[in-house]
Amino acid sequence: MNWIRVSIYTTSEGIEPVSGRLYQLGIAGLEIEDEQDFKDFLENNKQYWDYVDDDLIKEKEGETQVKAYVSDDASGRELLLAIKSTLQELKAIDEDNEFGRLEIEVDNMTEQDWANNWRQYFHPIEIGEKLMIKPEWEELSEPTDRIIFNIEPGMSFGTGSHYTTQLCLEALEQYIKPGIKMLDLGCGSGILSIISLLLGADEAVAVDIDPNAVDTAYQNAARNGVGKEKYTVLAGNVVTDADIQDKISKNKYEVVAANIVADVIIGLAPKAREYMKEGGVFITSGIISDRIEDVKAALIENGFEIKEINQRKDWASIICE
What angle in degrees, to the nearest 10, is found between the helix axes of 163-175 and 191-198? Predict the structure, then answer.
């Protein structure tokens, strides 16, 4: 298997929060290059050498980096989008800019390069009993009676390749009914909310902390014949942004979905319940196996009843009412 190295630019203070976010995504094997550690090492060990190679000093100078590796396939590229999404969330709460610029470098490729390289990996995927995710450039070899979601993989998480997205989509097949309202928290590409409309939902509202997700989600909606009369996409932090909260709270939702990471789901639990109709369903995913009990406890504490837990590989989805 080939691997892609992802370098995240941060600070010494940012190492722990960045690493924690990567662990939540199931990425455990990290390399840390801490600029401050190297400076301290040079300062405190002068007695042991007469000469330090200038090239080594130049290489180690600059920003602190946290490096991770993902597989060079469709699943790995979906994970790259998840890394970008979780760094956007971290940046939004880093009001004092302690954690640096939190930008990524992928080997020697730009973000646009690796987004465009999806074509060699991404092919139509059948999900559940009703759905098919199809890259826009692909032609089907034979007719299908499945609901087709066309997508051009871009810079937002959610193409259907990752287990977390698939678990959410299978749950939406079960719980989306004609005429209901749906809320997508952390929408990324908009895949969950747009497919909810294709499954028969009357309205959907999607929110993401990354402003780029607004254009991406609207573009994907247009690709699938979904207009703005049924679909609203907002950018902001649903936990802290009063304006976003006001816009969302104009409706009460029968289905709320959050395909993010465990800690964010825990933080969203009380807000999600505020926006839901009595008997509404909260579909959560993006939870690594080690965090299932933490998320369960937070959901129960906020008045939810666990209906089912579904797992695929090291990932879980928790559905509650």
Answer: 30
Q: How does 11-44 read in b/e, with b if 16+ C-beta sit within 10 Å?
A: beebbebbbebbbbbbbeeeeebbeeebeeeeee
Do the beta carbons of residue 38 and residue 60 sit within 8 Å?
yes
Cα 240 vs. chain centroid, distance in angstroms? 19
pLDDT in tens, 156-214: 566 777 889 999 999 999 999 999 999 999 998 899 999 999 999 999 999 998 888 89
**Model pLDDT for residues 123-136, shown as the tens digit of each residue:** 888 999 999 999 88
| pTM, rounded to two decimals | 0.74
pLDDT digits (tens, 9 = 90+) for 90-126: 888 888 899 999 998 887 656 566 556 666 667 888 9
CB distance 115 to 31 below 8 Å: no
318 phi/psi in degrees, rounded to 5: -115, 125
Separation CA 144–CA 142 (nearest Å): 7
How would you list the strands of the sheet with 125-127, edge to edge? Answer: 125-127, 131-135, 147-151
How many other CB atoms are found less than 10 A from the CB of residue 45? 10
Which amino acid, residue 298?
A
